[in-house]
Design goal:
heterodimer; A: alpha+beta; Ubiquitin-like (UB roll); FAD/NAD(P)-binding domain; seven-stranded mixed β-sheet; about 30% strand; B: alpha+beta; Gyrase A, domain 2; Alpha-Beta Plaits; about 20% helix
């Protein structure tokens, strides 16, 4: 055992030595050690370089509040994590850890020249300096600053780990497993409540692990903890979760718990989940998060070896590690004396206790002198020396002006305690300022939440235990022997003989914010702590100012001459501690990142090596390239084959809504612009739907299956919103109608057959439907059978060719498709995808809602006045369509464009102008909405929204493309192919 | 009534869900009807159809192989064996001329997964935020809810068994999440 280990102390397993490396050097620690405790046990305090000045830094704390000791741990390819707190990362055999923000090495860091010139880098330096020239920002300043100032590197490889997430519920969620949390858990468990108790540390117990002199109900604290945990782990209604951080507190007592499962284990094979996010809905939340000790702000308070007194206590009691051989304790609070005495009792020489206060309980002074420790009353530390480790401290007496240098290898500071309000604040509980202790405390809860123990300002073991018992529903009071926690005094600024500008007195260690930076911010006019924070970056680092916020507030409020509550408190936001993206993703990675909806026929298309495109959350076959074909040739072939003979298309994604009930036709009349009462059973009609504002919302073919039953189809992407829109109107505007809506999108697979041979293909397989043109004309629907399966067969065309849409039960869709494909070989049946579908419809001038319309196009604008009923008394959008601005001149109309050079396919979205020679900015007339090469016509065709387009027939317009290229195009009617529609009726 | 053509559910249960503290099984072909009835006609329609139509939202009734659940103020889902209940749609359809009601065949819209085993509730909670303790979600409860991004129908058929149904195209996602959780390990293990 090394010279800094202390036998008989700590929760570490001394039978299990663990070897790990830090900056390529191997060290030995024990199972249960953190990187920090193991390095300290090896006499290493230097663990990192600071963010801005690259100053040497060691750990300040012993837990999750740690601002300084950030490290990178690599666990193999894709498993590098930076900015981990060395104070919480448990070591395992073979661990590879390294320091950050230094080059070439931690010991010698070239970036430290920033420190030498730090007087030139005050708060706001970057904002003020790197203003000119503007063009330098992106290429010079920002990359340089990002390189120089910074934390660990961002990973460049894909994360190889897997993560999980699950929902959970409990009656009582307790955050923090110190005395308050454990007492609450025991009490709640006895009341048969379901309890979840979480703690961010590896060992449950909180301060019980670090208080050897405390006796609870006649047992040493450690024994009481052990017994209590044993009882809790046996209770079936209690879940204990170590290494689990409550990262955020959301509405209705919903709390996110991030559980770390593998980071502390040797590198494992297989797929163990690294972190799991538990999303817990709690009946009640008990916050027992404790308090964080506050550093003192004095010159040189950031040297390695300077740390919180409680941290030194933790290292000794939890890990059996002495942080040094001789320490100076600098305090303004009684609690540091306990730390000093425990260290002294463990053979760490306390060179002096320097107490900034004048009045100190005499009992403490007596206890100190019993141990031979000098107490310097009313004095402060005015500086420290040592480069990579503190080597001495300077004691300054502000009354006499006397100075004394005292040798030490560590300085333990205590500026009081800050109750942890983080989760309380997430839950929007209000807080109140306690002037006496200089802290904010929980005031009125906003959720079913209560804060107890030190996080509520009730310090001491007995207070915590009794509060826990009471809040947990018990009546037990505990008998406790404990050292007096005592009181303290808050010093916003400590006296010094040095000029403020000559001091490096750090407030925020992680972001390198000093006392003078905060004062500078106030001098420069910042009045609110929120603004001071943003100007100085105090509290904006990854630790969210856990050790710095209150000190910054005290300094700012004193500089402003205002009370702290008038200056404010910065807002705490989730997550409480840095949380991996993996934990937030859970299982939703790769294939599960989002839902990809696939049709029943998708597997066939995949086999045929179709190229797919996303359409909303669906993936659809885009085109079916044959060997050597690019998209252009494949689409040209598919179009030609369809027009010449027969194409087949998977239209299963079309939204389908069954509208059923005695008032079905009435409802349809209200939802669509055109009339439905006259539609005969067995007939189908194209329907156009507007929103309340008169703009086109959706369209689709609707078949009347029975007097009281319509089979409505919608666009693929529009299905959910159309259903919602209909249901919304039905429930709120037309509740008197007896009609019901059911989504049947996924009940049916839909195979669209288009081309002159479409009828011939299906004829042999259809039963119970007369397919003859006379009996089954265009725009009709019949029910019958195909291949023995029930079908709703539509005669409909989105291509201009003879067309049928075969609806069959979804789970038979693939079998029917395959049977039709096989039977269609005699007609050279050609499967086609969405691109060909788009070309075929554009040749006919059929619009696609969302492509040729953009939410500001009325039926009139789209040239579809013919579909707006003038007889109907009302329909959704009718009133708006009569608004003067929707009928005024100057609106954009949907027209066709034929380019002068028929080989030019215009770019969709390209702007259209009347005069390309007009100086920029030119008057824009509109833009191209659809544009394709038409193989059938041997020319490109396009549709566009153009101002007053209907009045511009035969006009030539211009489409400037940049680089001097200007295309010319003629305005035409947007029907390019078979304008009379004769091909629909091919026999 | 099955058909001669080959049925394709489009999804399979991965091996990891075939054994362990919870197993998953796909429901085969089923009759599924969405039944909407004005509340005044509930009892007569139920009688005429030979069905139980629970009055309370969220309550399911299982009679022989036929499950009916009340999902909304005037909404029931009916799920049963295809071969035995092929005529149910026609029967309900005929009834709709007499009563203010509607019936829609949604037999092929859903994929059903049966979860059985002591970790069944945990598996449901992987994607469903509802409280599944027996007091809050007793055996026989049936409700529409979500499984992460997938809307689902959740029916508790026993203390340790659930049926989850989602729309066909959401099934790979729903089952994929279950498999990911099974691979990662259960809480109770």
């Amino acid at each position: 055992m090394g010279e800094f280990r202390r036998a008989g102390r700590g929760l570490i397993n001394k039978d299990n030595p663990v070897h790990f490396s830090f900056d390529c050097k191997t060290y030995q620690g024990y199972e249960g050690d953190t990187i920090a405790s193991a390095l300290l046990a090896n006499g290493v305090h230097l663990m990192g370089r600071s963010f801005k000045y690259h100053r040497p830094r060691g750990p300040v704390g012993s837990g999750f509040e740690e601002p300084n000791a950030l490290v990178t741990v690599t666990r193999g390819k894709g498993r590098m994590t930076s900015n981990l707190r060395a104070t919480t990362m448990e070591i395992y055999s073979g661990m590879e850890a390294s320091s950050q923000n230094r080059w070439p090495s931690l010991g010698f860091d070239a970036g430290a020249f920033n420190n030498t010139f730090s007087m030139f880098f005050p708060a706001g330096f970057y904002n003020k300096t790197f203003m000119w020239p503007k063009s330098f920002w992106d290429k010079v300043y920002e990359p340089f600053i990002r390189n120089m100032a910074g934390l660990g590197p961002a990973p460049t490889e894909v994360d190889a780990d897997v993560y999980g997430s699950v929902y959970g519920h409990c009656d009582v969620l307790i955050v923090g497993s110190g005395p308050a949390g454990l007492a609450a858990a025991i009490a709640a468990a006895k009341k048969d409540q379901s309890v979840i108790l979480v703690d961010e540390n590896a060992e449950l117990g909180g301060s019980l692990n670090s208080s050897p002199s405390v006796v609870i109900d006649g047992k040493p604290a450690s024994e009481w903890r052990h017994k209590t945990l044993k009882a809790l782990s046996k209770a079936s209604n209690v879940t204990l979760m170590a290494r689990t951080t409550a990262v955020g507190y959301y509405h209705d007592d919903f709390v996110g718990l991030s559980e770390r499962l593998t980071d502390h284990l040797p590198i494992l094979e297989g797929n163990q989940i690294r972190e799991k996010l538990h999303r817990i809905r709690a009946g009640k939340v008990i916050l027992a998060q404790g308090a964080i000790e506050r550093p003192l702000v004095f010159d040189g308070n950031d040297k390695p070896g300077v740390m919180l007194a409680s941290a030194a206590q933790d290292y000794l009691n939890v890990y059996g590690v002495a942080v040094g051989k001789e320490a100076v304790v600098f305090t303004s609070h009684d609690s540091a004396y306990t730390a000093a005495f425990e260290l002294a009792d463990a053979n760490i020489r306390i060179a002096a206790i320097v107490d900034a206060r004048i009045y100190i309980p005499t009992s403490l002074i007596t206890m100190a002198s019993d141990r031979g420790i000098d107490v310097h009353v009313g004095k402060v530390l005015s500086g420290t020396s040592g480069k990579k480790r503190v080597s001495s401290a300077e004691i300054y007496d502000p009354t006499s002006g006397a100075k004394e240098t005292i040798k030490c290898d560590s300085v333990l500071m205590c500026g009081g305690w800050t109750p942890s309000l983080h989760l309380w604040s997430h839950s929007k509980g209000s807080i109140k300022w306690d002037a006496e202790t200089g802290v904010y405390l929980p005031d009125v809860a906003n959720e079913n939440c209560v804060s107890i123990g030190a996080s509520n300002g009730d310090f001491g073991f007995k207070a915590a235990l009794d509060a826990g018992s009471k809040i947990g529903g018990g009546r037990k009071t505990y008998t406790v022997e404990e050292p007096i926690f005592g009181t303290g005094e808050v010093f916003s600024s400590l006296p010094s003989y040095k000029k403020s500008s000559k001091q490096k007195a750090f407030v925020d260690f992680q972001n390198d914010v000093t006392e003078k930076d905060i004062k500078l911010a106030v001098r420069e006019g910042f009045r609110s702590i929120e603004h001071v924070k943003r100007y100085t970056t105090n509290g904006m680092a990854t630790d969210q100012g856990k050790t710095s916020n209150l000190n910054a507030l005290e300094i700012a409020s004193k500089a402003l001459g205002k009370e702290a509550p008038q200056v404010g408190l910065t807002t705490f936001r989730p997550p409480y501690t840095p949380t991996t993206f993996g934990a937030f993703c859970g299982y939703k990675m790769d294939d599960l990142f989002e839902v990809t909806r696939k049709t029943p026929i998708d597997a066939w298309a995949e086999q045929q090596r179709a190229v797919f495109e996303p359409v909303g959350v669906w993936r659809r076959a885009w085109y079916f390239p044959k060997a050597g074909e690019d998209m252009h040739t494949a689409v040209a072939r598919e179009c030609k084959a369809t027009r010449d003979s027969l194409g087949m298309f998977d239209a299963s994604t079309l939204g389908k809504i069954e509208v059923v009930g005695p008032d079905a036709a009435k409802f349809m009349n209200k939802m669509y612009t055109n009339p439905w009462g006259s539609l005969k059973v067995g007939a189908a009609r194209y329907g156009l739907m507007c929103r309340e504002d008169g703009y086109i919302y959706d369209d689709g073919v609707v078949g009347r299956i029975a007097e009281d039953r319509f089979h409505v189809t919608t666009t693929t992407g529009g299905a959910p919103r159309v259903y919602r829109h209909m249901e919304d109107y039905l429930q709120t505007e037309f509740p008197e109608l007896d009609v019901w809506l059911t989504s049947t999108t996924e009940h049916w697979a839909v195979i669209a057959l288009n081309g002159p041979n479409a009828r011939k293909l299906i004829e042999p397989f259809v039963e119970g439907i007369d397919l003859s043109p006379e009996a089954f004309p265009h725009m009709n629907v019949r029910e019958g059978k195909i291949f023995g399966l029930p079908t709703r067969l539509f005669r409909v065309s989105f291509s201009g060719e003879l067309g049928f849409e075969v609806n069959v039960p979804a789970q038979y869709g693939k079998a029917v498709w395959e049977a039709l494909y096989e039977a269609g070989q005699q007609y050279d049946i050609t499967p086609y995808g969405t691109e060909t579908m788009h070309v075929l419809r554009a040749e006919k001038g059929f619009i696609i809602v969302g492509q040729d319309t953009d939410g500001t196009v009325t039926p009139q604008d789209a040239g579809m006045s013919w579909i707006v009923s003038k007889k109907k008394k009302d329909f959704v959008g009718k009133r708006s369509l009569a608004r003067p601005d929707l009928t005024a001149d100057g609106r954009k109309h949907l027209i066709g464009l034929l380019t002068e050079d028929s080989n030019v396919v215009l770019e969709e979205g390209a702007h259209i102008v009347a005069d390309p020679n007009q100086p920029i900015p030119m008057d824009m007339l509109g833009h191209v909405t659809s544009s394709y090469w038409s193989e059938s016509l041997g020319t490109s065709v396009a549709m566009a929204l153009v101002k007053d387009g209907f009045k511009r027939m035969d006009e030539t317009l211009y489409i400037p493309m940049g680089g001097g290229i200007v295309h010319k195009a003629k305005v035409v009617k947007p029907v390019f192919y078979d304008p009379k529609g004769e091909r629909l009726n091919v026999v | 009534m099955s058909y001669d053509m080959k049925i394709d559910l489009g999804v399979e249960i991965p091996e990891v869900l075939q054994s362990g503290p919870v197993t998953a099984e796909l429901l085969g072909e089923k009759v599924r009807l969405s039944l909407r009835v004005k509340s005044a006609d509930r009892t007569v329609v139920a009688k005429a159809l030979g069905l139980t139509l629970p009055a309370k939202i969220g309550v399911a009734s299982t009679k022989a192989d036929l499950m009916t659940a009340c999902l909304g103020p005037d909404e029931w889902i009916v799920i049963g064996e295809t071969d035995k209940h092929a005529g149910l749609y026609e029967k309900a359809h005929k009834l709709s001329t007499k009563y203010v009601m509607s019936v829609t065949d949604v037999s092929y819209r859903n994929i059903g997964v049966v979860l059985t085993g002591q970790a069944a509730a945990e598996m449901v909670n992987v994607g469903c935020p509802l409280d599944l303790c027996l007091e809050a979600f007793p055996v026989g409860k049936c409700t529409r809810t979500v499984y992460e991004a997938s809307p689902i129908l959740l029916h508790r058929t026993g203390e340790d068994s659930f049926v989850m149904e989602c729309w066909r195209s959401f099934a790979p996602y729903m089952i994929g999440l279950m498999a990911a959780h099974a691979r990662g390990g259960f809480r109770s293990n």
